[in-house]
Amino acid sequence: MPSPEPPAGAADANVAEQLVRLTRRMQRAQKRHMDRLDLAVTPAQSRLLRIVGHCRGTAPRMADLAERLEVVPRAVTTLVDALEANGTVRRVPDPANRRVVRIELTDTGRSALRALRGARRAAAEEILSPLTPAQRAQLGGLLSTLVDGAGGTGAH
After folding, report:
1. Is the pLDDT of residue 151 over 60?
2. I want to staple 6 with a disulfide (CB 3.0 to 4.6 A). Which of 10, 85, 141, 155 is the partner?
3. What are the start-end ranges of the H helices in the chain?
């Protein structure tokens, strides 16, 4: 007797749960690697550092950061205050409009960002170690399709 088919949507719900569990596992592994480096940076601060680090040419405005992080401007102020206090970012006036404040990485911030990237790579290596190179390539392709694919928002 064949096994009954799962209810409609059950497979998608299972995949969704697996993705959530994998994301949490990745975050825990990254935190362990960051703790070894003595990096006291929250996930939100880490994300802000990555966004600032990706900006080439002109440093982002506080409003740009709020939009990219999908938070209210006050939340960005709190994040920037903490990062400025630990010396990883600095506020700089916009040369074209002195009412605008831009955020840029300091040398300490660039070093912290390199360390964060290293912690992320080490965590990914830990998580992906059971996979063969072919499986990693396949997973990378599938994830790219989901992140960048049809109908997606492309938000980071």
Report:
1. no
2. 10
3. 10-36, 43-54, 62-69, 73-85, 107-128, 133-148
